[in-house]
């Protein structure tokens, strides 16, 4: 029975190794492969940390197994070896302080450029840094989106801080061009929300009173989930919207259609019915 | 110690079981219902239960102009040479596109409809539906051939049941089980959630005398109502949207029916009068009112009910804005009397004492809606338009008013061009320069103002 517990505790590092090994293949951690280049780098960081923690876990479990095994041997019948008391080892203390600190320092430095690109505005891709594509305002419980609209020639206008007569509005439906970085200005009308694009690995809190720039790039055209990751109230689960990434031309066509819909004066309806 | 242990186990178990118990949803009644004499309450309750059922056991009352089921229709011919056919030629009243394999087919008339108390043996599943030949193929032969003209229904009550489930998930916690706008979240909301039981919905595309269209309701569900707690449910599938709309209409019709019933019985004072009324006039009056209610909703769904401008939107020019402004403050359109000369929603009517539908004065000055809620005229400078921000939405608000509120209809008083001028002006208001002294910029002395060029 003594050795059963040794085996019991040795089972978990093996399971951890297996889980760590197969998790990426089965998407246990993420909803599919990252749909953005920065998301891919975030995944790489995640898996690096997963490998480090798995190795550490296996190492500590192996040490635990060794201690249990030798303890079991000592208590076997006929064994003359006795347990011995150790007050502590200065060298060991130094080692297991410095090694984890070194690992943490490595992770902190290694991820710094990803973090900067993700969060620090001066590190954003230059083409989007001062050119938000839309303003996304979170509200209990929906996402209201303001686009700057298009001029008479059909060219997208710049987004102004305050609403303009040319602005276009949608709700729960964020359309962006795919294959290039885009930036949105994130706000909230009421409580703290969190702008979450799980497939693109984007998560950013929306804080009352702040306008927070968030950039992302959808690699492929398609429809992605836009959720609120903050428990922002009773109807939090209702804040499900969509991000539609599409080619530059179809995005511009969509803007034109949105403009036409928003300027609809009911007259086309008459001719359709006739 | 042992007693303490046993007691705590019993208490814990009961707390868990209590928590796990499912609350049975129930329709609540209008306040007026509770003022009726008990005998009248029984009749009203029974009548409602007979025709609408309960939240968990609904009745698909055919008199109501609703899409209860996927499809309904009549048999036109049966497969030749067989006494127990599994293939029928039919003509459909509704739902030609909604028939799916696996749905049940039930009979409403003919020999296949069992007499009361008998077991239903003629329910079959759809195997295929061919719209070109109007042929419905069933999974097994029927016990006997239906006669031409026999009526059937596909997926009996399915749409409404689907709607009920979705309503409970998304809408009920604000709008309440009965659609009375008194769900558990409602006390925390301003404006309060809509009480459907008057059959009135504010933001419609229809004429003043008409009800909302199904599209009006689905538009509100899809886009939410900006500036209120009603969020957008854009990602609902079309069949989910349809089911919710039908269920909301069903609740609305149930509420209207209850209102009619409590009105009939509200005047009766003793059991004898109730009995006399039930035996003599009640049935006929009730039938008439339901037919009227159904027709009113039906008519509202027809294209003729829509508000459609004869002329397109007037171009937004300084002249149009000037005309719009002049109308806005004029006695003809009277916009400023509620919305204020600056559009801030603070016109003189907001300080006047108004009368309720019974002719009594409200306790506090200001405007009220038909549900008795105090109402603030919209601040037009916020750029938030609850009924939609398209020009046609604003046109319709001015042309047909906002139902259930003091916002009147100007369709007959103003020409299309005048309405469009007001629409243009109202849409420009959030971007309009404010007057000096309103707190948004430094005060300009009058003499400087006079010398400034009035472009």
From TrEMBL, chain A:
Its cofactor is Cu cation. The keyword Cell membrane does not apply. Binds a copper A center. Its EC number is 7.1.1.9. Residues 129-257 form the Cytochrome oxidase subunit II copper A binding domain. InterPro entries: CcO_II (IPR045187), CcO_II-like_C (IPR002429), Copper_CuA (IPR001505), Cupredoxin (IPR008972), Cyt_c_oxidase_su2_TM_dom (IPR011759), Cyt_c_oxidase_su2_TM_sf (IPR036257). It catalyses: 4 Fe(II)-[cytochrome c] + O2 + 8 H(+)(in) = 4 Fe(III)-[cytochrome c] + 2 H2O + 4 H(+)(out). GO terms for molecular function: copper ion binding; cytochrome-c oxidase activity; oxidoreductase activity. Pfam families: COX2 (PF00116), COX2_TM (PF02790). Keywords: Copper, Electron transport, Membrane, Metal-binding, Oxidoreductase, Respiratory chain, Translocase, Transmembrane, Transmembrane helix, Transport. SUPFAM superfamilies: Cupredoxins, Cytochrome c oxidase subunit II-like, transmembrane region. GO terms for biological process: ATP synthesis coupled electron transport. It is found in: Cell membrane; Membrane. It is a multi-pass membrane protein. Residues 22-122 form the Cytochrome oxidase subunit II transmembrane region profile domain. GO terms for cellular component: plasma membrane. Its main location: membrane. It comes from the Bacteria. Subunits I and II form the functional core of the enzyme complex. Electrons originating in cytochrome c are transferred via heme a and Cu(A) to the binuclear center formed by heme a3 and Cu(B). PANTHER family: CYTOCHROME C OXIDASE SUBUNIT 2, CYTOCHROME C OXIDASE, SUBUNIT II. Belongs to the cytochrome c oxidase subunit 2 family. This is Cytochrome c oxidase subunit 2. It comes from Maioricimonas rarisocia. The gene is coxM.
Automatic annotation (TrEMBL), chain B:
Keywords: Electron transport, Heme, Iron, Metal-binding, Transport. Residues 431-455 are annotated as: Disordered. GO terms for molecular function: electron transfer activity; heme binding; iron ion binding. Gene3D superfamilies: Cytochrome c-like domain. Residues 158-252, 319-430 form the Cytochrome c domain. PROSITE patterns: CYTC, PROKAR_LIPOPROTEIN. Coiled coil: none annotated. PANTHER family: BLL4482 PROTEIN (PTHR35008:SF4), BLL4482 PROTEIN-RELATED (PTHR35008). This is Cytochrome c6. It comes from Maioricimonas rarisocia.
């Amino acid at each position: 029975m003594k050795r059963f517990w040794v085996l019991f505790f040795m089972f978990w590092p093996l399971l951890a190794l297996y889980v760590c090994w197969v998790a990426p293949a089965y998407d246990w951690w993420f909803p599919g492969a990252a749909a953005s280049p920065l998301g891919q780098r975030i995944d790489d960081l995640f898996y690096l940390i997963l490998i480090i923690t798995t190795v550490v876990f296996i190492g500590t479990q192996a040490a635990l197994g060794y201690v249990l095994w030798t303890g079991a041997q000592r208590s076997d019948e006929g064994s003359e070896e006795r347990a011995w008391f150790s007050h502590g080892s200065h060298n060991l203390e130094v080692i297991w302080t410095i090694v984890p600190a070194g690992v943490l320092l490595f992770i902190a430095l290694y991820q710094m450029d990803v973090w900067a690109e993700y969060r620090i505005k001066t590190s954003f891709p230059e083409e989007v840094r001062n050119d938000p594509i839309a303003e996304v305002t979170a509200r209990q419980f929906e996402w209201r989106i303001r686009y700057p609209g298009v001029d008479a020639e059909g060219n997208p206008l710049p987004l102004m801080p305050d609403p303009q007569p040319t602005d276009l509005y949608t709700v729960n439906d964020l359309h962006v061009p795919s294959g290039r970085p885009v930036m949105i200005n994130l706000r909230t009308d009421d409580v703290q929300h969190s702008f979450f694009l799980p497939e693109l690995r984007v998560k950013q809190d929306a804080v009352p009173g702040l306008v927070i720039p968030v950039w992302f790039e959808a690699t492929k055209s398609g429809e992605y989930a836009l959720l609120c990751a903050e428990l922002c109230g009773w109807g939090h689960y209702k804040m499900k919207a969509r991000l539609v990434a599409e080619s530059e031309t179809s995005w511009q066509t969509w803007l034109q259609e949105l403009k036409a819909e928003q300027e609809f004066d009911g007259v086309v309806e008459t001719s359709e019915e006739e | 110690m042992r007693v303490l242990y046993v007691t705590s186990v019993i208490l814990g178990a009961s707390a868990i079981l209590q928590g796990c118990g499912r609350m049975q949803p129930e329709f609540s009644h209008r306040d007026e219902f509770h003022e009726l004499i008990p005998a009248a309450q029984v009749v009203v309750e029974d009548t409602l239960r007979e025709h609408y059922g309960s939240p968990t056991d609904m009745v698909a009352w055919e008199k109501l102009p609703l899409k209860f089921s996927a499809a309904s229709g009549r048999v036109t011919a049966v497969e030749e040479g067989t006494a127990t056919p599994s293939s029928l030629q039919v003509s459909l009243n509704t739902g030609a596109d909604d028939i799916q394999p696996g749905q049940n087919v039930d009979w409403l008339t003919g020999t296949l409809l069992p007499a009361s108390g008998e077991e239903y043996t003629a329910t079959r599943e759809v195997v295929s539906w061919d719209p070109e030949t109007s042929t419905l193929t069933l999974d097994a032969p029927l016990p006997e051939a239906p006669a031409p003209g026999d009526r059937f229904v596909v997926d009996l009550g399915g749409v409404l049941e689907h709607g009920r489930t979705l309503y409970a998930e998304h809408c009920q916690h604000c709008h309440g089980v009965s659609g009375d706008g008194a769900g558990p979240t409602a006390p925390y909301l301003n404006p309060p959630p809509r009480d459907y039981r008057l059959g009135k919905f504010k933001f419609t595309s229809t004429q003043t005398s008409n009800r909302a269209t199904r599209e009006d309701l689905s538009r509100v569900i899809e886009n939410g109502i900006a500036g209120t707690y009603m969020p957008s449910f854009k990602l609902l599938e079309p069949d989910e949207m349809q089911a919710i709309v039908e269920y909301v209409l069903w609740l609305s019709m149930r509420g209207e029916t209850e209102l009619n019933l409590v009105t009939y019985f509200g005047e009766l004072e003793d059991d004898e009068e109730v009995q006399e009324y039930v035996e003599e006039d009640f049935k006929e009056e009730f039938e008439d009112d339901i037919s009227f209610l159904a027709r009113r909703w039906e008519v509202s769904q027809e294209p003729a009910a829509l508000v459609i401008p004869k002329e397109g939107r007037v171009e937004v020019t300084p002249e149009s804005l000037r005309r719009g402004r002049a109308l806005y403050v004029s006695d003809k359109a009277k916009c400023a009397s509620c919305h204020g000369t600056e559009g801030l929603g603070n016109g003189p009517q907001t300080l006047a004492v108004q009368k309720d539908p019974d002719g009594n004065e409200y306790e506090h000055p200001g405007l009220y809606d038909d549900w008795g809620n105090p109402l603030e005229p919209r601040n037009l400078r916020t750029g938030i338009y609850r009924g939609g921000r398209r020009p046609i939405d604003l046109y319709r608000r001015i042309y047909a008013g906002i139902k259930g509120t003091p916002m009147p209809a100007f369709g007959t008083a103003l020409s299309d061009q005048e309405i469009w001028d007001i629409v243009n002006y109202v849409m420009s208001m959030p971007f309009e320069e404010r007057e000096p002294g309103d707190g948004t910029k430094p005060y300009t002395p009058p003499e400087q103002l006079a010398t400034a060029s009035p472009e």
